[in-house]
């Protein structure tokens, strides 16, 4: 029955998709204000395209403050040159989000008195709003603080400095002297990264360039490097994030599904039937369901929201990314056939040959991590696996046929509805923690006046 | 994760009995019981076989993992692992030519012991060990296709019979199968985060693992490994300046504890003497530490155990001691 339902849902269904509208996602670095502005990074999205040790990391954030106050510090495994850093098209994150977002699927019951007929309609997610914006910053300087400026360059609206440091106090002082406002407690957290021989990627907004760029929001920064480390440093981001922070990670791999190696990866509840009124409040539903699942799992797991080969989708919440978009998202191995992990012959950015319009060698994993300092002491480590099994967060809404029916089948159908509605209500209540009485009030009423008591009874016990 | 069942027999020219079983005094598994009972008329074992406990516990973990830990594990893969392991074991016991050494003790066998129907000459406990291997590999190894599991398990069980030195198998069969699958197939992986960091699981593994280890007298291996590894990680934590919850998070990993209790402790593949075991576990802890922190390998423990396996031979040669026997774990004098 479940299979049949899935089959119908994917084949005949009318599809509605909402991009995830959670308040959004914390960043793997911390923001450093140049003024006394209180800054909180609430949310961030990171795309990691990785094959073997080659990685292209795209970091997007929902920074709301003044561009001049924006700065970020991210530990990176290697020194990055100007060629390894670029500004990504902000639309690409929206595309990844739309393609992988948990989805609500709806389909309609037929008139039970009519022979079946098919529907096929899709509703696409909201269009992508381009964004970006820059601002300027000043020069950095190396000094006797044990801080070395490994590279310094300008990319798009950002001024970027790559630092290596011998000692966290020196780095903190250097950053302060260079006009960055360092959150309290940064020194202690910088030390482990320095000792692990990580470099520091420091970006500020070049105001002049930002103002002339025409963008209104900061664009994502994309960096490329080669390192066996497959991790995201979330600890730094917890200095100025007070509450739980949400991080969405899109991992693109030629092999298959990715997972977190040092925390559990748990599938978000999926493939459940929920009442039709949820259509109007799907965002609320998803937020509540996520929070309930997060609490149930003791708040220390990563949730898998989507795992799929990017060559297709079923049902599609958005068109699969075309090769150009995949390249913008960092995929640099498009030229290779599926299953090979050989590094491409051309540069890491994939310059040179244009990729074939084939995307079947890209597998996307969407992980949603809500982290707090107490439950996520360690940075996130990932691993890609050969698991090609698809998974999606998918919620099913089956619209009942509530018009007048006089045939026997119609009566039996109507008699079966109350039980179905109640099951859907219970599912909803269990997933979201919403009160069952409140849900029941919103369920459609069914006219059972012309249905015999034994039909009702039969439907109930069936 | 499993133990070797070693049986040796050779035909003689006599009519009845037609064969003579040669039982190694130190490795007399799995026919040891049967033949000893026959020849000495007294069972050498007391209580329930530790491996039965292990089978019970591993089945429990598998069930708990599937129910509470959201594993993407399919029943047909588990079934494949079990069937393949038992079949491979049977075929090897049935058709491998027995080794013949001067250390063996001759016991007459009757016709029925060698020929006859399928299982009539193999006691049920010959299949404990492959069962443990199959369950262990089901818990640890994830595969994309069932045949990868079948292959990995076949290799694991075969390694017991084929890769031997001085009639002691060198590699922990489960570990060997996992390593081969990871290295040579494109459809196998392990999920080190699969157990999470729940205190309850750590306690469960401690209790269950402890029960088995107490029976086989190999507590020292697990304790030494954990102590060495904890110390190495603590040193690193101190050096890096992480808060201590980073360290405890790493140490509370269910996978690490499970590995410590149920994989490195296989009494048949670890060194025989206590001092050897300490050196050996330190090597594994050190390799795990290095692989994990400097090579960023999520499979560090498996490779550490794999690479340390040959060390057992050297240690056994340097530090002579009794070999482990499932039936007399408290020690028999070596020959």
Main attributes?
heterodimer; A: 462 residues; alpha+beta; 2 domains; nine-stranded mixed sheet; five-stranded mixed sheet; 22 strands; 26% strand; elongated; disordered N terminus; B: 335 residues; mainly alpha; three-stranded antiparallel sheet; two-stranded antiparallel sheet; 13 helices; 7 strands; globular; disordered C terminus
In short:
With 462 residues, chain A is an alpha+beta fold. Chain A has helices at residues 2-12, 90-100, 168-177, 186-195, 207-213, 282-296, 323-328, 408-432, 436-441, 453-461; strands at 14-17, 30-31, 43-51, 54-61, 71-76, 85-87, 103-108, 121-122, 147-155, 158-165, 199-205, 221-226, 231-232, 245-253, 258-260, 264-267, 272-274, 301-309, 363-371, 380-384, 391-392, 394-399. In chain A, strands 3, 4, 6, 12, 14, 16, 18, 19 and 21 form a nine-stranded mixed beta sheet that branches.
How would the blueprint of this fold be written?
The complex is a heterodimer of chains A (462) and B (335).
Chain A lengths: L1 H11 L1 E4 L12 E2 L11 E9 L2 E8 L9 E6 L8 E3 L2 H11 L2 E6 L12 E2 L24 E9 L2 E8 L2 H10 L8 H10 L3 E7 L1 H7 L7 E6 L4 E2 L12 E9 L4 E3 L3 E4 L4 E3 L7 H15 L4 E9 L13 H6 L34 E9 L8 E5 L6 E2 L1 E6 L8 H25 L3 H6 L11 H9 L1
Parallel strand pairs in A: 1-8, 3-14, 7-22, 16-18, 17-22
Antiparallel strand pairs in A: 1-7, 2-5, 3-4, 4-12, 5-11, 6-12, 9-10, 10-11, 13-20, 14-19, 15-20, 18-19, 18-21
Helix pairs in contact in A: 3-4, 8-10
Chain B lengths: L7 E4 L7 E6 L6 H10 L9 H19 L6 H21 L8 E6 L1 H4 L13 H13 E3 L2 H17 L1 E2 L2 E2 L3 H12 L3 E3 L8 H18 L2 H22 L3 H8 L2 H9 L11 H21 L5 H19 L17
Antiparallel strand pairs in B: 1-2, 2-3, 4-7, 5-6
Helix pairs in contact in B: 2-5, 2-8, 3-5, 3-6, 5-6, 5-7, 6-7, 7-13, 8-11, 9-10, 9-12, 12-13
């Amino acid at each position: 029955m479940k299979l049949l339902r899935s089959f119908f849902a994917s084949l005949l269904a009318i599809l509605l998709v909402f991009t995830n509208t959670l308040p959004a996602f914390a960043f793997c670095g911390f923001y450093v204000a140049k003024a006394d502005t209180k800054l909180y990074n609430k949310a961030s999205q990171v795309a990691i395209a990785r094959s073997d040790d080659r990685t292209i990391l795209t970091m997007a954030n929902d920074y709301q403050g003044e561009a001049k106050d924006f700065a970020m510090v991210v530990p990176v495994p290697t020194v990055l040159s100007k060629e390894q850093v670029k500004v990504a098209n902000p639309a690409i994150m929206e595309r990844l989000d739309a393609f992988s977002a948990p989805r609500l699927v709806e389909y309609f019951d037929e008139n039970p008195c009519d022979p079946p007929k098919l529907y096929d309609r899709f509703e696409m997610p909201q269009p992508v709003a381009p964004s970006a914006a820059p601002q300027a910053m000043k020069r950095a300087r190396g000094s006797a603080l044990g801080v070395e400026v490994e590279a310094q360059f300008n990319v798009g609206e950002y001024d970027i400095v790559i630092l290596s440091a011998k000692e966290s106090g020196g780095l903190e002082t250097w950053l302060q002297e260079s006009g960055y406002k360092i959150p309290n407690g940064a020194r202690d957290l910088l030390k482990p990264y320095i000792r692990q021989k990580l470099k520091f990627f420091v970006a500020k907004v070049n105001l002049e360039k930002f103002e002339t760029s025409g963008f209104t929001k900061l664009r994502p920064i994309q960096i490329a490097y080669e390192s066996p480390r497959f991790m995201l440093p979330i600890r730094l981001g917890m200095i100025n994030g007070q509450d739980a922070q949400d991080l969405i990670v899109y991992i693109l791999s030629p092999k298959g599904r990715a997972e977190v190696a040092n925390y559990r990866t748990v599938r978000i509840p999926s493939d459940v039937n929920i009442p039709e009124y949820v259509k109007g409040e799907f965002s609320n539903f998803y937020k509540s369901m996520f929070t309930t699942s997060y609490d149930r799992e003791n708040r220390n797991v990563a949730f898998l929201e989507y795992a799929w080969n990017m060559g297709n989708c079923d049902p599609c919440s958005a068109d699969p990314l075309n090769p150009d978009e995949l390249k913008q998202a960092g995929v640099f191995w498009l030229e290779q056939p599926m299953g090979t992990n050989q590094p491409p012959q051309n540069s890491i950015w994939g310059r040179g040959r244009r990729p074939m319009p084939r995307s079947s060698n890209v597998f996307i994993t969407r992980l949603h991590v809500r982290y707090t300092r107490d439950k996520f002491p360690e940075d996130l480590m990932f691993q890609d696996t050969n698991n090609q099994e698809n998974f999606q967060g998918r919620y099913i809404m089956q619209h009942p046929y509530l018009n007048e029916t006089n045939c026997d089948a119609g009566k039996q159908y109507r008699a079966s509805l109350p039980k179905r509605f109640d099951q859907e209500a219970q599912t909803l209540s269990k997933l979201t923690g919403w009160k069952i009485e409140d849900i029941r009030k919103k369920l459609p009423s069914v006219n059972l006046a012309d249905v015999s008591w034994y039909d009702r009874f039969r439907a109930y016990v069936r | 994760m499993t133990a070797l069942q070693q049986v040796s027999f050779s035909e003689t020219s006599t009519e009845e009995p037609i064969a003579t079983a040669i039982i190694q005094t130190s490795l007399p598994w799995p026919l040891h019981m049967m033949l000893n009972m026959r020849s000495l008329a007294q069972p050498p074992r007391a209580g329930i076989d530790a491996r039965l406990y292990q089978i019970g516990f591993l089945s429990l973990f598998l069930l708990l993992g599937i129910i509470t830990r959201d594993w993407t594990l399919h029943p047909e893969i588990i079934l494949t692992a079990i069937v393949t392991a038992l079949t491979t074991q049977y075929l090897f016991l049935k058709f491998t030519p027995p080794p013949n050494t001067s250390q063996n003790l001759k016991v007459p066998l009757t016709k029925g012991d060698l020929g006859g129907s399928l299982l009539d000459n193999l006691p049920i406990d010959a299949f404990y060990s492959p069962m443990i291997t199959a369950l262990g590999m089901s818990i640890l190894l994830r595969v994309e296709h069932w045949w990868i599991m079948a292959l990995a398990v076949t290799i694991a069980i075969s390694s017991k019979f084929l890769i031997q030195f001085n009639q002691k198998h060198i590699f922990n069969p489960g570990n060997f199968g996992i390593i081969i699958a990871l290295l040579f197939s494109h459809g196998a992986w392990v999920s080190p985060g699969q157990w999470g960091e729940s205190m309850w699981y750590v306690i469960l593994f401690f209790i269950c693992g402890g029960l088995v280890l107490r029976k086989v007298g190999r507590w020292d291996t697990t304790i030494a490994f954990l102590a060495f590894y904890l110390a190495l990680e603590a040193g690193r934590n101190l050096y890096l300046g992480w808060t201590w919850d980073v360290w405890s998070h790493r140490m509370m990993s269910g996978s690490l504890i499970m590995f410590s209790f149920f994989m490195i402790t296989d009494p048949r593949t670890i060194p025989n003497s206590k001092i050897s075991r300490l050196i050996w576990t330190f090597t594994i802890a050190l390799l795990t530490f290095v692989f994990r922190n400097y090579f960023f390998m999520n499979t560090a423990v498996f490779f550490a155990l794999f690479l340390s396996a040959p060390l057992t031979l050297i240690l056994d040669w340097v530090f002579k001691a009794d070999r482990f026997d499932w039936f007399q774990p408290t020690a028999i004098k070596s020959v």
